[in-house]
Amino acid sequence: MTICSCGGTILAKEDVIEVEGKVVDTLPNAMFKVELENGATILAHVSGKIRMHYIRILPGDRVTVELSPYDLTKGRITYRFIK
Fold it and tell me: Which Gene3D superfamilies does this chain map to (predicted)?
């Protein structure tokens, strides 16, 4: 973990929690409802790399989600598994 010049802290890559899940529903503004393996449902947005490469995410897709240890109800979709 590092400290930025603004006084806040920036999470290192090792501080995130990666879990797999299934996209249940699409929401406006590239947001998705994702059901995790443990049964919890979270709100997730698409990472910049997926958006940059125009990878489409549809309901039913298996994805990898990064969760912050500070808020386990929101996440970032970082990978879509090939069917």
Answer: Nucleic acid-binding proteins
> Is there a domain that residue 27 lies in?
yes
**Nearest of 60, 77, 76 to residue 22 by alpha carbon:** 60
> Total structural domains in the chain?
1
CATH (domain of 55)? 2.40.50.140
Q: What CA–CA distances, in Å, run from 8 to 1, 5, 11, 36, 76? A: 11, 7, 10, 30, 21
Cα 34 to Cα 64: distance, rounded to the nearest angstrom: 10
pLDDT digits (tens, 9 = 90+) for 5-37: 565 666 666 789 999 999 999 999 999 999 999
Distances (CA, A) of 22 to 1, 7, 11, 40: 30, 37, 25, 11
Q: Which domain holds residue 68?
A: 13-80
How many other C-beta atoms can be found within 10 angstroms of the C-beta atom of residue 10? 10
